[in-house]
Specification:
- There is one protein chain.
- By secondary structure, this protein is of the alpha+beta class.
- It contains eight helices and 58 strands.
- Among the domains are: 130 residues, no CATH class; 219 residues, Methylamine Dehydrogenase, Chain H; 188 residues, Orthogonal Bundle (Helix Hairpins), CATH 1.10.287; 122 residues, YVTN repeat-like/Quinoprotein amine dehydrogenase (Methylamine Dehydrogenase, Chain H).
- 25% of the residues lie in helices and 36% in strands.
- It has a four-stranded antiparallel β-sheet with strand order 3-4-5-6, with no helix packed on it.
- Strand 49 and strand 50 form a beta hairpin.
- It starts with a strand and ends in a 6-residue tail after the last strand.
Length: 948
């Protein structure tokens, strides 16, 4: 025991403080700096930040060690078990200062404390001492002083949250107070709260929150984004992609069309041409049907071919006829001031004179074996044409010669060339192809309908989950059947034991009865012997004469000896009877115990038997669901695999990034120019698309043969739909919203957060109504960091700084299971697709895998260099992705495997994958948003925007 000196200090406030000063303790005391300042120390600004950092983890309203709360001057003066923590005006006798300076036991913060709190510095101790000596006063305006918001400093761009849509097409990433939106290599823009933009007089939109974005989630259908900040939840709704829909005229057969920007021209079977550009204008153009229309590249001129075998050129703005000449052509296209007219297999090249009064024949391009079906300009002085046999030819106009020939493999109905001339797309009834015009190679055959592909993937996901459900249900039934068999075997054993116990009791009862009879007989004989002794003794006493006395003595001795033997015999009989009774009693207890065991065994068997039928029904239902999902999968697979782009029209965007294809069934599809990867699908009408044109790089116009016009927004946009709570006003949320998760149906949103060291907040939001549907009270005792809905949407898992992961019933809020095992904050939770497995990420540098059915821990995955911050399961597999503070992205599985598949240049905070788990996004402190496939390859990076 260390020697020391005991001081007892008492104050006039009835405060007592016991301080043990030892030689070793004194040697380790922390120096208290002398602080000089003109103004008083402010608790809110100067003292509370120190206490919050180094003391409040264990001394707060929720978790108050020794009943001591250090969150306000009033609480400090009230103190705890030992009385006030501070003596106003007397820092030397104040417990708080002495234990913080390690001048008294117990020293604070304790060594190796769970909160990793560090000792107060000499300057912090000096500030605390001065505050006490100045009267330990509260801040002016109280502890609830108004928060003064300041702009975030430039360069504060950590990405705390990323979210990927289920189809993998869109990514949302929070940087500072902004939410960036991405699609592959393209930035789509930023979510913008117009009110905040006005308040901050921002030069450009793109401000989503007042403070740093802490959490993000995208609804399963990709239509909504939820973002969480300080005491504020925002719901963003995707805007309709159809910007305009109108009918240009009543439907009729034989309509031909051309489009250029907002200009749409329609020619009908009566020879009338109608211009739709703001106000409608029309004029009689031909005697008979209009066969073909072409708008010049500058949008000033219109050329038309008609059944009257006339080729005419018009001033498009007002329909003024500029020239007319005879032509039997069927297709035409402008190339600068040249007009190419397809006439059977030949392509006649006509030059427009300077006054636009005459088309002069330059020559004819020949080589096609079949009638030319499509023609388009290439660069400034070339053309590309195609015919019904699938031949595609590249022509140079200066020398009227063929440069290259390609084979489409079927009749070509439409053709288009990218603005830079490097790519060409050809299409017809047999499908579409993307070509590299520089070397004539085929880049891609365009077969993907993104809507059908997404349906295929979703149905495949559903089928795989159904398979897992069937396998799990069969396993449950098999285990239940085994339990029943075990209970049947156990019942047999118990029945045998009971039978033996019954037989033994009968035997023991018979033995006891015999023993009792023997005892009765022995006792009677003993009585008789005693009577004989009495009788012989009496005879001895009355005998006269020596012979008589001698004979009487001998008789009395014999009777006495016989009586002693009978007594011994009776005692032996009594012992035997007692033993027999004890054995019977024991046998009775054994039988009674066997009866109880038999009853329990019967009940256990009945329970095991009763469990089988529901499980059989579950198996039947799951198998039926699997069969249904399998049938739907086959249908989706067939639709996806057999889809053909029956192309009618093609157009490239002016920036050359993408092109659009219109189809015979009214479909409209966009693809990447570089490799033909699908971008999007827009459902037009049921009629064939007759004209397609990019109004600009963000809008696409399409007209079908029935005259129905649609204008589409190519880039998805989300606008603010609902704001719940305010950072500086009323809010249902107490602090930062650190976790968000949509339910599988997208109708509910789980929101997690809470004030650090005080409480964990878990609330369920009705997305459609934008209201708090329910709150799970006392979900956690500290901040919630991660949330995940169960795949069936009936449960929600949450985890937090209190080191627990818990599962609640969504409807009732009932706590279903508690999972304990982490030794530090639990930072995220993810649910396996079959609903049986869960994984949690810990600040203790491990991932734990759990069994939902029995609440057990399956395994711990170690080897991470720092805190594991985020998890997401990959599709229906047992694999999951884990982001880690050691800058690495890991691919793990529930069996314990762990592989590094990606890295950042700093601490990683978040990872999110698409529905099927073949594409994911991760980000962290370096602000770079990285998208990779499931193997960590094909990386796409989006760095933070430049500060310049």
């Amino acid at each position: 025991m260390v020697s020391g000196l005991l001081f007892v200090i008492r104050s006039t406030l009835a405060f007592s403080l016991v301080i043990v000063m030892s030689a070793s303790a004194a040697a380790k005391a922390i120096e208290i700096a002398t602080i000089e300042r003109e103004n008083d120390v402010d608790f809110q600004k100067d003292i509370l930040p120190v206490l919050r950092k180094k003391c409040l983890a264990c001394h707060n309203e929720t978790d108050a060690d020794s009943d001591l709360v250090l969150e306000s001057p009033a609480a400090i003066l009230k103190g705890g078990f030992e009385g006030p923590a501070v003596i106003v005006g007397n820092s030397d006798e104040s417990l708080l200062l002495n234990v913080a300076a390690h001048r008294a036991e117990p020293i604070m913060p304790p060594e190796d404390n769970d909160a990793d709190a560090e000792n107060l510095t000499p300057e912090e101790l000096g500030l605390l001492k001065l505050w006490i000596d100045q009267g330990a006063k509260a801040s002016e305006g109280g502890s609830e002083s108004i928060v003064k918001w300041q702009p975030l400093p430039p360069g504060v761009n950590p990405v705390y949250a990323v979210a990927m849509s289920g189809d993998g097409r869109f990514v949302a990433a929070g940087r500072a107070n902004q939410v960036f939106l991405y699609q592959g290599q393209d930035e789509l823009g930023r979510l913008s709260d117009d009110e905040l933009v006005k308040q901050q007089a921002a030069a450009s939109p793109g401000i989503a929150h007042l403070d740093i974005v802490q959490s993000l989630a995208i609804s399963p259908d990709g239509q909504q984004i939820a973002s969480g900040g300080y005491r504020t939840l925002k719901l963003w709704q995707r805007e309709p992609v159809l910007a305009r829909h109108e009918s240009l005229r009543e439907a009729e057969e034989g309509l031909v069309m051309a489009a250029h920007g907002q200009q749409v021209v329609v020619g009908d079977s009566a020879g009338k041409i109608t211009l739709h550009q703001g106000d409608k204008a029309d004029w009689q153009a031909h005697d008979g049907a209009v066969y073909a229309l072409a708008i010049s590249q500058d949008g000033q001129l219109l050329a038309s071919l008609g059944a009257d075998k006339q080729l005419k050129v018009w001033k498009l703005s007002d329909g003024t006829e500029l020239l007319a000449q005879e032509s039997s052509g069927s297709q035409l296209v402008w190339q600068g001031n040249h007009l190419a007219v397809a006439n059977g297999p030949a392509l006649d090249i006509l030059s427009l004179d300077g006054d636009a009064k005459q088309l002069i024949s330059v020559g004819s391009l020949t080589g096609h074996a079949e009638a030319i079906s499509a023609v388009t300009p290439l660069g400034d002085n070339s053309l590309v044409s195609a015919d019904a046999a699938g031949s595609i030819r590249v022509w140079q106009l200066d020398e009227l010669k063929q440069l290259r020939e390609l084979q489409h493999g079927g009749a070509v109905a439409a053709i288009a060339v990218s603005p830079d001339g490097s790519r060409c797309v050809s299409g017809g009834e047999s499908g579409s192809k993307l070509w590299n015009l520089e070397d004539g190679s085929e880049v891609a055959t365009l077969t993907t309908n993104v809507a059908l592909r997404d349906q295929h993937q979703r149905q495949k996901f559903a089928f795989e989950v159904a398979q897992q459900h069937v396998a799990n249900a069969k396993k449950d039934l098999e285990e239940a059947t085994k339990r029943k068999t075990q209970e049947e075997e156990n019942l047999k054993k118990v029945e045998e034991t009971r039978k033996k116990a019954d037989e033994d009791l009968k035997a023991k009862t018979d033995a006891e009865q015999k023993a009792q009879k023997a005892l009765q007989a022995a006792e009677q004989e003993q009585k008789n012997g005693d009577e004989k002794v009495t009788e012989t003794q009496s005879q001895l006493e009355s005998a006269e004469g020596d012979d008589a006395k001698k004979a009487a003595q001998e008789a009395a001795d014999a009777a006495k000896k016989a009586a002693e033997e009978l007594k011994k015999k009776a005692e032996e009989a009594k012992t035997a009877a007692t033993k027999a009774t004890d054995e019977k009693t024991a046998a009775t207890r054994t039988l009674e115990s066997s009866d109880r065991s038999l009853e329990r065994a019967k009940q256990a068997l009945a329970t095991a038997d009763q469990a089988i039928k529901p499980l059989q029904e579950i198996v039947t239902n799951k198998e039926a669901q699997q069969q249904s999902d399998e049938a739907q999968l086959k249908q989706a697979e067939e639709r996806d695999n057999t889809f053909v782009l029956q192309t009618t029209e093609i157009d490239f965007s002016s920036n050359g990034i993408q092109f659009a294809i219109g189809t015979r069934d009214g479909g409209l599809f966009t693809f990447a120019t570089s490799d033909g990867q699908p971008h999007g699908r827009f459902h037009h009408q049921e009629a064939a698309v007759a004209a397609v044109d990019f109004v600009d790089d963000g809008r696409l116009l399409a007209v079908d043969v029935n005259g129905s016009l649609c204008e589409w927004m190519l880039q998805p946009r989300w606008s603010l739909q609902q704001t719940i709570g305010r950072p500086d006003g009323d809010s249902p949320f107490d602090d930062r919203i650190t976790a968000l998760a949509f339910g599988p149906a997208g109708k509910l949103l789980a929101v997690g957060g809470g004030e650090p060291s005080r409480m964990g907040e878990l609330k369920i939001v009705d997305v459609e109504q934008g209201t708090i549907q329910s709150e799970i009270k006392d979900a956690h005792s500290d901040t919630v960091f991660g949330i995940a809905f169960s795949p069936d949407g009936k449960k929600v898992a949450s985890c937090g700084a209190d080191r627990f992961m818990k599962v609640f019933d969504i409807t009732s809020g009932e706590l279903l299971k508690t999972f304990e095992g982490h030794t530090h904050h639990v930072l995220d939770v993810a649910w396996q697709a079959d609903g049986r497995g869960l994984a949690t990420a810990g600040a203790d540098k491990v991932v734990k895998v759990w069994d939902m059915n029995n609440g057990s821990q399956i395994r711990t995955i170690e080897g991470f260099g720092k805190e594991v911050t985020s998890l997401d399961f990959a599709g229906t597999s047992n694999r999951f992705f884990a982001a880690c503070g050691d800058r690495s992205l890991y691919r793990c599985d529930t069996g314990g495997k762990r592989d590094g598949i990606g890295t950042g240049s700093d601490f990683l905070y978040s990872v999110s994958s698409n529905l099927v788990g073949d594409w994911l996004v991760f980000a962290g402190h370096d602000s770079v948003v990285r998208m990779v496939n499931a193997d960590g390859k094909e990386a796409v990076e989006h760095p933070a925007p430049s500060l310049k």
